[in-house]
Structure formats: C-alpha cells, structure tokens
Specification:
The complex is a heterodimer of chains A (433) and B (123).
Chain A (H helix, E strand, L loop, with lengths): L1 H15 L28 E4 L9 H7 L5 E4 L2 E3 L3 E4 L7 E3 L8 E4 L10 E6 L4 E9 L4 E6 L4 E9 L6 E4 L4 E4 L2 E3 L4 E6 L10 E4 L2 E3 L3 E6 L4 E4 L2 E3 L3 E6 L13 E3 L2 E3 L15 H5 L6 E6 L1 E2 L2 E3 L2 E3 L4 E6 L12 E2 L2 E3 L2 E2 L11 E3 L7 E2 L8 E2 L19 H12 L28
Parallel strand pairs in A: 1-2, 2-5, 3-6, 4-7, 5-8, 6-8, 7-9, 8-10, 9-11, 10-12, 10-13, 11-14, 12-15, 13-16, 14-17, 15-18, 16-19, 17-20, 18-21, 19-22, 20-23, 21-25, 22-26, 23-27, 24-28, 25-29, 26-30, 27-31, 29-32, 31-33
Chain B lengths: L1 H16 L7 H4 L4 E7 L2 E3 L2 E5 L2 E7 L10 E4 L17 E6 L3 E6 L9 E7 L1
Parallel strand pairs in B: 1-4, 3-8
Antiparallel strand pairs in B: 1-2, 4-6, 5-7, 7-8
Classes of the chains: A mainly beta (433), B alpha/beta (123).
Amino acid sequence: MTHVRNIGLALVVALALPGAALAGPYPPPAKPSTTQKAPKGPFHTLTVCKHGCKYKTIQSAVDKAKAGDAVKVKSGTYREGVTVLGASKRYLKLVGNPKDPSKVVLDGTQGKKTPRQNGVRVDGANQVTINGFTAKHYNGNGFFVVNVTGYELNHLNATLAGVYGIYAFNSIGGTMENSQASYNNDSGFYIGQTPKQTTPVRSIVRNVKSFGNVLGFSGTNMRYVTITKSQWFNNGSGIVPNALDTEKYAPPEDNVITDNDIFWNNFNYYAGAPFKLKKQATSAPYPVGVGVLLFGGRRAEVTNNRIYGNYLIGVGAIKQILLKQADAADLIGNQVHDNQFGLGGADLNGRELFYDGSGSDNCFGPNVGVTTTTPADGSTFAPCPFAGVNTFNAAAQSEAINWSVGDPTHEAFWIKHPHAAKPGLTPLEHYKK
Amino acid sequence: MRILLALALTGVAALAAAPAVAVPPDAVRKPQKKRVEVVDNFYSPRKLTVNLKSRINWVWTDGSADVHDVKLLSAPKGFKKFQTEPGSAGYTYSKTLTKPGVYKFICTLHEEDNMRMTITVRH
C-alpha cells in the first residue's frame, strides 16, 4: 500500500477536507505477461557458495542461468541484492535451505551506506521459485515479485525490511507459504494491484507467521487472494485489505480470509520499535489494535478464523471515504461469518465487530463470542445472507475515524482485557530493546 | 521608480558600449547538477529544464516511506532507456542526460497516482 500508510492519511484527510481532487484521464494499465512458454530444457543447476564454487554470488549465477534452471545456494551470508529480470529467467528456481532458511542469509547492510534495496527482486519473469532463504536489513523489501504470472515464495524469512517483508505487486496468481515476516517497517506480507481477470487465478497465502510489523498483511486493491492457516499476531494491525487510489484496479475484490489465528495485534510501534519509524508513518497515523480491517472492498469473506486479544477491534469494516473512484468506495457483498471471537471468553477483543453500515449486501454472522460492537446497538450488522442496502450509521463511522486521528497515544480507545497465555509467545504492546 | 529607471538606462548604456563578442552556446550553458526528490507519491520538481549533459540525482528522501522507482518512459532518439531499482528513503540514483530533447519518467508502482515527471534538455 502505500498501501496502508495511506489509510491513515486518508482518514486524516477525510476530517480535514470536504472532498478530494479528481484524477485526470489516464492510459490503460499494463498487465503482466501471460504468454511466457514453459522452457523445455535441458536444465542445469548452478551452485553458489562462498568458497570452492564456480559462483561466489547469487547474482552471478542468476545472470548465467537460463529459463528453468536451478540456482542452489549453500549455507552462508550473502551481502547482495539479487535481481531476476525478464522472460529469459522464467521458471528459475532459487533454492537455499528449505528445511532451515536461517542457514542461507541475504543481508542488505553495507557498512555506513544505505542498505541495499531488495533481497530478491523478480520482475517480469513468470513462475520463479524462491525457496529457503532469510532476508534481513534491506532498505526496501525482503522478497519482491512484480509484473509476473505465477510465483512460488516458500520457506522464506523476511525481517527488518525498510518497507515490506514478502511482497507481490501487479501479478497474477502465486503462492506465499511456510514463511515468516517480522519487524518490517510496513507490512510483513503484501499483495497489491492485482489485475482484474475474466478467469481468475487465485493467489494463496498459507501457513505463514507475521508478527512485529506495522501491519501483518496489507492488500491494496488485491483480488482473488486466499489467506489461510496462518498466524497474525503482535502487529499494529493484523490483516488489512484496502482500496487506495495510489495503485491501479481499486477496490480489493473476491478475497477470502479463513482458518487463521489473528490475535494480540496491539503493537504500538509509535512508542518504540526495532526499526526506525519513517516520517510518513508517524504523520499519517492509522489505528493500532485491529485484527482485520476491511477498508473498502467487495466480496471479501472472513470466515472460520479465531480472532482474539485485539484491543481496538476484532474485525472492522468501513467505507473508503476518500477514494477518487466513487463507484469503488463502498463496501459491497462482504461477509463476516462463522468466526470465533475472544477465545471462548479467555482473551476478548476490545470490540469484536465494527461496521459503519455503508454500502450494500454486507453481512455479519453467525459468529461465536461477539460481546461488544460498534455501534453498540448492532444496527449495522445484518445477519448473513443479506441482500440490499445496509443501514448506515454516521456516528459509528465518525467514531472509527477518531480512533485513527483523534488519539496521539494510539491507545486511548483500547479496551484491554487479560490475554490467555500461549506457549512460546509473549504479547507485544511496547517494544523494549 | 526613478531609481529603477536609472538602473535600466545604465544597463542599456553599458550594453551599447560593450564590444560585440560572439559567445559560444556551450560556454553559456554548462552542464548542471540537479536534485530530484522522490517521495510518496510524486517527484519534486515534476518538471525540470536543464542544459545538455546535466547530471540528475534522484534522492529518495524521508518522505519516501513506500517503495518507488524511476523508469524512463520516453527519451530523445539514441538515449538508452533505464529503470532504477525500486527503493525507499535513503536510496539515490544519478544519470547524465546526454541528448537534447524531452525525457518522461514514471514510477511503475504508482502510475495510478500520476507519479511522473518531465525533464527537458536544451542545447
């Protein structure tokens, strides 16, 4: 997003301005290539290691590799940024140590100089696999895939990136799985600007952990994404599909968030973080203490998740009030049902549900463990299934905006409850060195 | 007003008294060094006119919390197109513009937000 920094900004501006400037005419957007043929081989394996291998750097092996080849990287720390560029590198396999990604480390630091920008960047090469790496201390992103059809990001660990941990942009179909993202300055995982498709190819985010980030997951104008069987905890906010003008193809559509554990997203990074907060982030606050926030969007299904211990709200939904494409701003056809809130009463959210009642065909429930909502009278929460115009509540919308912009502490509107202990995990609210 | 008028007249007189010397254009318009800031989500300045062979330094400032790049969309004939790495605050990239004409740049990640700029290189 800017993804979601702009969410805060949008909320700020919403209070300050009666309206936003309209965009001028714009050429049609370019979609990633879907016509790269699978290579026929013969395929080769290029081995990289610090001593005794033909290739001492990953980039030198990638430069030599042909489509479909494998680049195997032995244990070690590689201080470089790897670029995989263009169709001639399609179907490339970058393989570190899938069983223990901590053994093969990409490190962005370079002394006193600004760190390198991206750990691995794939641009325009379809069906590339990156498997078994750790990327840390990059100034931009840990792993970044852009303008492709198909990708496999597996067994990765992205930490302390300046912006995103594991990131796919303007791409069709792909998988992020068995991976971890922590302490990234924006979101741990991010899928943005998914082109609209007549025969959609879904992207899968499965069995990942995301913690200590500003956002666990951001999805600006993403579509056809399923997020499942993953853990989102100790972030500022957990999962935030969002509609923004900064990227193409607003709003987010047809996403599924199911069978996840979404808890303890109360990391008040404003009060201190293991990363240097960027100026833009602090000038455009967005709420801390949220499990899932639908910031505009259509046909999202949030179902069968376990959502608990988020001090502001478990699941929230609000119209994207500043979107220039006015016809894409409303919440339409979103469903929040069959989720378990509050861990059976042992770890309550501040409020289980918030919805401003904007848009149409949005429905909530049945859900288990819903005790507190905004609005308190529950008037916006039409039970599923529901068709028709929802019941808008301006006071509830204003209250939610105030959570973002009316609280310099970012905690004033929290409703705190005790957490249930989880083996091996400690709640993160205020970072201590 | 009278002072201004006097200064103007003095200037005219000085020009009239000066010997006519042909100044080569290259001597007048030396290559420049110009800084362009890359921030969320625009370049500053958005338009720039520089002399031939000027060096442009794009600087991702603290206002660049997100990731941006600089892609040369169109350029005078003979100038090789380029695209920077997507970067964030702290990143820099420099390029010397060696052909006269109009150069158009975009951020490929924020085309939708009209993140673009134009540099005109004069002879």
